[in-house]
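yo

u said u wanted the structure for the complex thing, so here. seqs first:
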Amino acid sequence: MDKCFNEIKKELEDKIPDSDSKDFKEMRNKIKSQLKKKENDLKILIRSLKIIIFGDWNTIDKKKKLEDIKSNFIKHGIYAQTIDAYYDITTKGRLSPLQILETCCRNHQLIVFIDGEGPGTITEQNYLIENYIFQKKTIFFIKDDKFNELKDDPSAYIRDFPTILTYTDSNILDKVLIYSKLRIHRLAGIIMKQTISNRGIKSPEYKPWKERLKKLKK
Amino acid sequence: MLIYNIKRKKGIKMSEDLKQFYYNATNLKNIMLENNNIDILLFLAKYNPKTTKDDIIKNFGKESIKGLKHLEQCHLVTEEDNKITLTEEGIFQVEGLLSIAI
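structre next:
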């Protein structure tokens, strides 16, 4: 299990009383009554939405950067994973890299892409460029100075990402969190509206991601 | 599951994974409120990974198995060799429950 979740689990073990105690029942009742309130619907929904973080993880420092971004999301109530979680072939049944990419892009509601030069990141980048239906749910983060070098070149690869945000080393955590949080909240709001209005996935016009991807490949 | 667009007379197949996500996302609250599911989640957060299915039945009754199945469908718990474990998503959601109640 991921280190972040191990820490959260330990905290939960301390906070939750013994199951045969009066305090346990009180905690359960409090949770139940709060959960019934409409104002908490959005909070629960937001916690069920998932972010996948793509970027270089081929050195210790680069891997740490992605993990810091992930931990920051989790600390602020947003579920996030880095792609290396999917490369644990002992638990994930030996999916090919392409299958992993497709699984990640389909199953996560937001793709946070940190620009990089590692071969894995280039593969992910090319995959998103080719399968442009996923670009709508991608936020592309690139270092300020690199963006300034590329911005006047319309053939540069960055043009393929509709949402580009620049960062510096000192503000990357805040920037990634702020903009991703806004997108997640927006999506949660849309899901809630569609639940009420019977649109979106409930509409007979709706085409699932798998279908759209198939059409793209033809 | 096939949904027919009456105007186009065309069948659109819903992908199971996305249908499941939508169902889970919009029904998560209802599933958590069902039966003893909150108790189960708190119990697992407290004692897991030392929890078996028999422990759940012993503490919450046989009817809790249905709730356990729903929690599994939402990827909050997983069962392997009679052991019931909270997933990372499950841990995350329990943390959320505590934050709204405390």
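Strands of chain B lie at 2-5, 10-13, 77-80, 83-86. Residues 15-101 of chain B form a domain with the Arc Repressor Mutant, subunit A fold (CATH 1.10.10.10).
cya
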